């Protein structure tokens, strides 16, 4: 019980202190978030102190602390922003997917996820390692369930030749398989596996698991 209480208090201290209501405040918050990404990508995680992030963002340390209690709070906000971007991308692709082939839809989703990771690889590597420390587990799980639900809805409505009888299980397996493969590639950066090859391999993985006839190439 004490451990759970301490985790709750720690996550509470990581929350954004000031929710910006005016456009200027929103711009300041975004500048801080983007400043953190620039430091991570150009200088590395050890350099990403609140003072350095404030300097790169063009704000004072005092201003930064009006919005974020500490470094972890900035990472927590970035985690949420990446969640929103991934969910938005999935929604757009799956909505258009009703008019595309199975392979086109699978490929578009995987390319979209890879694009998000490639835009800030150092950030995503750090979130893989520290995400559950800075963000409450229930929020991470809620995001996972939203994405799995979107996949499940698409599988139930789209004209896809599904050979899996349990669509809930299929949506879960697809999501976890794609996520695990992409995150492992992000962390390990294996030789001989460039972005185009990764997209081809994961697309084939999904289609062979899911579809009645996945023998046709891209």
Question: Could you explain how this protein is built, in words?
Answer:
The structure is a single chain. This protein is mainly α. The chain has a domain at 78-210: Orthogonal Bundle (Tetracycline Repressor, domain 2). It is 76% helix and 0% strand. It is built from ten helices and no strands. The protein has helices spanning 2-13, 23-43, 50-57, 61-67, 71-97, 102-119, 121-134, 137-157, 167-188, 195-210. The radius of gyration is 19 Å and the shape is elongated. The N and C termini lie far apart (53 Å).
Features:
single chain, 218 residues, mainly alpha, 10 helices, 76% helix
* Biggest pleated sheet: none
- The level 1 CATH classification of the domain at 78-210 is Mainly Alpha
Morphology: elongated
**Helical amount:** over 70%
Count all strands and give the number.
0
**What's the total helix number?**
10
What is the averaged pLDDT score?
Answer: 86
Might you state the CATH topology name of the domain at 78-210?
Answer: Tetracycline Repressor, domain 2
């Amino acid at each position: 019980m004490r451990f759970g209480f301490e985790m709750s208090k720690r996550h509470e201290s990581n929350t954004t202190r000031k929710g910006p209501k005016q456009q200027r405040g929103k711009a300041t918050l975004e500048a801080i978030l983007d400043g953190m990404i620039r430091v991570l990508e150009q200088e590395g995680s050890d350099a990403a102190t609140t003072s350095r992030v404030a300097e790169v963002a063009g704000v004072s340390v005092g201003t930064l602390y009006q919005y974020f209690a500490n470094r972890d709070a900035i990472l927590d906000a970035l985690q949420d922003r990446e969640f929103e971007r991934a969910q938005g991308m999935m929604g757009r692709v799956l909505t258009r997917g009703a008019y595309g082939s199975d392979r086109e839809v699978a490929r578009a989703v995987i390319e979209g996820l890879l694009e998000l990771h490639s835009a800030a690889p150092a950030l995503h590597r750090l979130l893989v390692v520290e995400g559950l420390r800075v963000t409450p587990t229930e929020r991470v799980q809620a995001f996972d369930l939203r994405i799995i639900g979107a996949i499940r809805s698409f599988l139930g409505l789209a004209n896809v030749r599904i050979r899996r009888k349990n669509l809930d299980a299929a949506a879960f397996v697809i999501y976890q398989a794609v996520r695990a493969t992409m995150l492992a590639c992000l962390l390990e950066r294996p030789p001989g596996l460039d972005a185009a090859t990764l997209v081809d391999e994961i697309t084939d993985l999904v289609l062979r698991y899911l579809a009645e006839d996945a023998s046709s190439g891209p």
